[in-house]
Structure formats: C-alpha cells, structure tokens
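Per your request, structure below.
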C-alpha cells in the first residue's frame, strides 16, 4: 500500500482546495473522488453551471426588455437553449480540467472511486470496474459534501420531478414550473426559467422567503421576481403528488387557515434543502459520531472523535457554502502541517445570485437585537448613485450595521446588481475589525457602484452626501 500524509475523500471545494494547500505545505497528498470529474457538486452541478445559466438568461431578458432604452433596437430575440446549455457545459469542462492541472502541478495523487475508511489509517478505494485498492494515511479529511433532500412523495426522476441537477439540464423551456422550497436554489433556478419564459410558482412552508436573510433585501428581491411573473405561496405545505396526462399535480395546504387545494405543472423543482453525504464512507468502521441531523461531529480543530480524521464542509455544522468549505479545508491542511489553522465564521458571506443579487455578511438587525447589541444602521440607495443610473441598475440598496458603542461593523447587507462583487470590501473591513468610520473615510473611485457602500457607511452617522 502506498502511504500518504493526507488522504482527502471528496474533490469538491473543501477537498480539492484543502489538498492543494496541504501539498503546498509539503504534505504527500491524495484525493479520492467517486465522480468522473473533479470539483464536486459546486463545480459540476451547482454553483458554476447555475451561474452560467443565470448570466445567459439575464442577457436574454435584457435583450428583450432593456436594450431599447439604450437605443439598441432588435427586430427579434430568439432563444437557442441548446447553445446556452452547451456554453454552460463547456465552462464546467474547462474548470474541472483546471483542477486536474492543479493536482498535477502540486503533485497530488488523484484516485478515482468511492473512498471508504477501513481503520484510522487505511482508506479503501472502490473503482467503477469493481476493483478495490487501499492506501495508508497518517491523516484523513472527509469532504464528501451534500446531496439534495428528496421528499417521499416527490422522488427525483430528473424529468418531471427535478433536483437542482435536473433543473440545470432541461432540454426545453417548460410552460409551467412549480418550485417546492423558496430558498436560495429555488429562487436562483426559478428565476432562470422565468426569464426564459416559464410561469414559475414557488411554494414555501415558512411564512417568509429566506427568513434568515435581511428581510428588507428580500422584499426588494421578491418585488423584482414578481415582475418576472413568479408567484409565491408562503405558509404552504405540499402534501401529495400524482401524474396526470404527462403533467404533475400537487396537493397543498395553507397553514394559516387549513385550506386545501391542488396545482398542476409541467415540472416540479424540489429545493427543500440538502443533507450531508456520508453513505459508504465507513464512519461506522471507526466509530465516528454524527449529530441528530446526520452531520459529522467535530471539535474546534475539525477533528472527529479520532484525532487524525478530520471533516469539513457540508458534512459538518454550519452553512452549506463552497467558500466556507474551502476555508475549512485550508485550515485542516495548515493544522496538520503547522499546528495552526483558523476560520472566522463571523465573516462568512452569503449570496443569492438572482437579479438583483442579495449579498450578506454578519448579523442582521434582528439578530443583533436578539444578542443584546445596540446598533446604528446606515442605508443608501443605488438609485442615488451615478454609475448605477448609467448602467440602468438602480434597484436596491446597501445597509451597514455597526455596534453603536464601538462603531465596529457587525453586518453588511446589499441587494443590487452584482452586489456579490462589492460585498467583499465589507467582509475585509470586518475581518480587520474595521468601523463604519474606516469605510466612510476610504477612497472609492467615482463613478462606481461601490460608492454606495461608502455612502451607507457615512449614513451610519447620518451624513451621507450623495442622496
């Protein structure tokens, strides 16, 4: 058996980034991946392909609805869905190939198959042809990610009942789509197909859409999505489904009054969350403990109850976000190699890649209040920003939340075009313990969308200048 300093099970963001960092620090590293390509859910059937379709669908919608305002007159706009999908697939192929290149560059051994822990220092690889091999590992990192939650009466067939994977691969534009679950995935994928011409209905069990996100931001987003003729049924529970004439019919119940009804659609996207994927990893062979939600229990150093076996990303507690997994993978590699590794969970960004985007970091006003923190809030609209007007992207605002006693920034919330790109400066300010005054006194190029952040920071002290 070949021996490694670090064996990583799973080549998603947590696994492959952690492996690269381990190799950079001199660890002899191997990565085991069950799928044909590297990159995990995020790169293959998640973050990257969904953003490709979001961008394409936004261009299509803009050409239909916005170009004329710029003096660009088109006789007609036609959709070539096959070409749109091919573009998405090429982006994925290029990026998965990029990870293979990085593995070779960093001398990381790539092993294809299912990784299974046999004992504290042995991992077995089951290849697609049924052959089994084993490797020795001083340290093991479990980074196997998550899978969509399947409802018992809505089993995925990826034709009529879709997970996010199926929603990324439709070869036609459905006339109607029901989205069960109004979370990030449901809103993003629902908005893609709504822009391409599908009538989308979102059914959400909670009384609010994305209840953990700043609700002022969500209110702006929902107004925008309703302009795409998306319909929202909140406080509503789906109870059953059936196939009728090639369509899907759902029974649902309104939780506020118990009223029961039914609705039909061409396809149903089930986006009710994701769950850790640990099947077949061999946790039971070494007694690795899980919590009540199936997540692997870890300590502050990402160690399981076996100190040389670590877990990161979606299989552990916390938000199921690629960048969170990446930082944890890096932290594990650094802990193994140097004894030091750290992730600041107070600055983990969260993004909804709709149009407009919703981008958040830190606490909301409500969360701060629940923690007994008195806050000062600065808010500024994109409508008062020159670059936003020039771009025709005046929807939304920036909100900065500061501790009233210290002026330290404890939260930032943005709804607006490409807000994910400008949130980073709030994240950096928080990472350095910065104050709203720090942001307010920092140069921002004029005219840029990012000036709205400066004005919001100024407005914490009620002294914005442009609005």
């Amino acid at each position: 058996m070949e021996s490694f300093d670090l064996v990583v099970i799973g080549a998603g963001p947590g696994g492959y980034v952690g492996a690269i960092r381990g190799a950079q620090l001199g660890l002899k590293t191997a990565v085991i991946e069950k799928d044909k390509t590297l990159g995990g859910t995020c790169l293959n059937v998640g973050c990257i392909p969904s953003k490709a379709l979001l961008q394409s669908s936004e261009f299509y919608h803009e050409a239909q609805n916005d170009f004329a305002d710029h003096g660009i007159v088109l006789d007609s706009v036609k959709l070539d869905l096959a070409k749109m999908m091919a573009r998405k697939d090429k982006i994925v192929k290029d990026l998965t190939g990029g990870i293979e290149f990085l593995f070779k560059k960093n001398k990381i051994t790539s092993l294809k198959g299912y990784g299974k822990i046999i004992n504290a220092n042995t991992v077995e690889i089951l290849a697609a042809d049924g052959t089994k091999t084993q490797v020795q590992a001083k340290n093991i990192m479990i980074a196997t990610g998550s899978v969509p939650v399947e409802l018992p009466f809505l089993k995925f067939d990826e034709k009529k009942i879709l997970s996010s994977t199926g929603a990324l691969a439709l070869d036609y534009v459905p006339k109607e789509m029901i989205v069960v679950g109004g979370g990030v995935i449901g809103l993003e994928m629902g908005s893609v197909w709504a822009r391409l011409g599908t009538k989308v209905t979102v059914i959400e069990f909670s009384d609010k859409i994305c209840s953990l996100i700043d609700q002022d931001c969500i209110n702006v987003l929902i107004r925008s999505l309703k302009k795409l003729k998306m319909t929202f049924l909140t406080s509503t529970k789906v109870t059953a489904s059936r196939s009728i004439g090639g369509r899907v019919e759902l029974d649902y119940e309104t939780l506020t009054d118990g009223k029961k009804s039914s609705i039909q659609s061409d396809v149903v996207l089930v986006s009710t969350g994701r769950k850790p994927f640990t099947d077949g990893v061999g946790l039971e062979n070494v007694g690795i403990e899980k919590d009540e939600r199936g997540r692997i229990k870890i300590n502050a150093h990402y160690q399981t109850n076996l100190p040389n076996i670590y877990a990161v990303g979606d299989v552990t507690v916390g938000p199921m976000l690629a960048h969170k997994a990446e930082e944890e993978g890096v932290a594990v590699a650094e802990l193994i190699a140097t004894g030091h590794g750290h992730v600041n969970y107070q600055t983990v960004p969260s993004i909804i890649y709709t149009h407009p985007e919703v981008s958040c970091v830190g606490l909301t006003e409500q969360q701060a209040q629940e923690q007994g923190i008195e806050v000062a809030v600065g808010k500024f609209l994109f409508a008062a920003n020159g670059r936003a007007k020039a771009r025709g992207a005046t929807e939304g605002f920036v909100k900065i939340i500061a501790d009233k006693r210290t002026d330290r920034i404890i939260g930032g919330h943005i709804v607006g075009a490409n807000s994910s790109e400008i949130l980073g400066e709030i994240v950096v300010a928080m990472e350095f313990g910065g104050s709203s005054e720090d942001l307010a006194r920092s140069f921002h190029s004029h005219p840029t969308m990012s000036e709205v952040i400066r004005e919001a920071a100024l407005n914490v002290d009620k002294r914005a200048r442009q609005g």
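The chain has a mean pLDDT of 97.

Regards,
D.
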